[in-house]
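Board notes (copied after class):
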Amino acid sequence: MSHPFAIVVGVGPGTGATVARKFGATYPIALLARNPSNYEDAVRDIQSAGGRAIGIPTDVQDAESVKHAVETAQKEFGSERLAAAVFNVGGRFIRKPFLELTQEEFESGWEANGLLSPPLPMALSVPAFRYSRKFHI
């Protein structure tokens, strides 16, 4: 039986990379981000530690991009079984009090984190869970 893999969506230099490194110690892992420079260091670290990791440039607001990423990971790891999917997309990070945000700044974060992005990767990765006995979303 094939070993399940994990996906971390929204890998950057902080939380996403840390979570990816933790999962990468146990599972083959696909790291997804729009910009490859966001996941390249984490992929190298996981591989250097003996793990299997790939980075896939992905726009989580584009269904075809997400579908391609899931299919690429399944093909690369030779498995349709997904052990875990972590959603960590951040949008444009703005450090200021909430009441000082402009409408554009607020909408940027809302679109990335609350409106469009979470349902899409979940909807396209959940079918891979059907092959797993245990899974976490």
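Comment from the instructor: The first strand starts at residue 5 and ends at 9. The CA atoms of residues 23 and 95 lie 29 Å apart.
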